[in-house]
Amino acid sequence: MQNYRSSNTTAIGYLSRPLNEKILLVQVLVGIFLYVNFLMIFTFLKKEAFRTDTRYVLFAQTLFMDSFLMLLTDLVLTGNYFQFPIPWIPCCALCFLMSWLSIGTPLTLVAMCLERYVAICMPLRHADISSPRNQRRGLVVIWVVSTLIPMFALVSFLSLVPPAFLLTYVVCSVELMQVQTWVNEVRKALLLMYFVLMFSVIVFTYIAILKAARTASSDNKKSTHKGLRTVILHTFQLLLCLTQFVCPFVEMAMLKIDFMLFINVRYSNFIVFFIAPRCLSPLIYGLRDEKFYVVLRRYASFGLDAVVFTLPTAEKKKLRCQARTTPL
């Protein structure tokens, strides 16, 4: 434990080096991501049709989880950059929440694939299976299953460190809770089990929807193929999300080689495997979904879009001419 703390002190000394352009880029990306997500959350909350549809409820859950996770992660990242120490107990709480939310997103993606499978392969039972009661049960199951690995890591950490250690201050990082090798091995095994189960479910839904697409009538082929493309995008998004679970182990291996290599690898992993997959949810549902996109465009333009579309054709032409002739 003492050696681990001394190595962490050395790491803090390196973190004082200027990384202005990198931290600035991260803040810009996080700001854009949060703006788009909050706009979509507002769109979801304003329309009752979205709040009662299982598909959009699961989509909104990914938006809530990803936004909250991005805020916490950016807070920890900024604290590391400015070397701001906090007590161990808040650090443990932050690490628990980040792990909880990071596992919840892939599980929600699996649930979204299952919802598309039911809608396409069992359309007559879709209304019964996607009832509000089953929606609440599914969300509770996702949240409970998401807590298993973070709870194991937290309980193991608290049982291995002395109580006085929790009263000290530290620059918070998730890796600080990895104090024993066997804890990491058990965590790896649990994450591998999660990955195999989730990937198996997605492969099953993909094959089932592919069979339905081959036998579907010409009227249903368009929606079936669209559902198939959605599952493919979710699979890619899930792979990126699950790759982030391997990143800490790769980063710790890089730390043993060279600390600046560790910093560069961590920065790249954060951009590619943390921010990028969370930008796919707005793309999949916010821009590809016509019904959601129409409402989103209305709120994004502060209602001006809706006013123009409801005007007669002559009035629209008049507004366009006025816009061209009005000086800037």
Structure in a nutshell:
This protein is mainly α and 328 residues long. Helix content is 83%, strand content 1%.
Descriptive report:
It is a single chain. By secondary structure, the chain is mainly α. The chain contains 15 helices and 2 strands. The protein has helices spanning about 1-15, 20-45, 50, 55-80, 90-120, 125-130, 130-160, 180-215, 220-245, 245-255, 260-280, 280-285, 290-300, 305-310, 315-325, and strands at about 85, 170. The chain has a two-stranded antiparallel sheet. Helix 4 (about 55-80) packs antiparallel against helix 5. The longest helix is centred in the middle third of the chain and has 35 residues, at about 180-215. It is globular. The termini are far apart. Residues about 1-15, about 305-320 and about 320-328 have low confidence and may be disordered.
Mind sketching the topology for me?
Elements (H helix, E strand, L loop, with lengths): L1 H14 L4 H27 L1 H4 L2 H28 L4 E2 H34 L4 H4 L2 H29 L8 E2 L10 H35 L2 H26 L3 H11 L1 H20 L1 H8 L2 H11 L3 H7 L2 H13 L3
Antiparallel strand pairs: 1-2
Structural class: mainly alpha
Query: Looking at the chains present, what oligomeric state does this protein adopt?
Result: single chain
Q: What is the N-to-C succession of helices and strands?
A: HHHHEHHHEHHHHHHHH
| Estimated helix fraction | over 70%
Number of beta strands: 2
N/C terminus separation: 65 Å
Q: For the residues shown, what is the average pLDDT?
A: 76
Uncertain residue segments? 1-17, 306-320, 322-328
Largest sheet: 2 strands, antiparallel
Total helical elements: 15
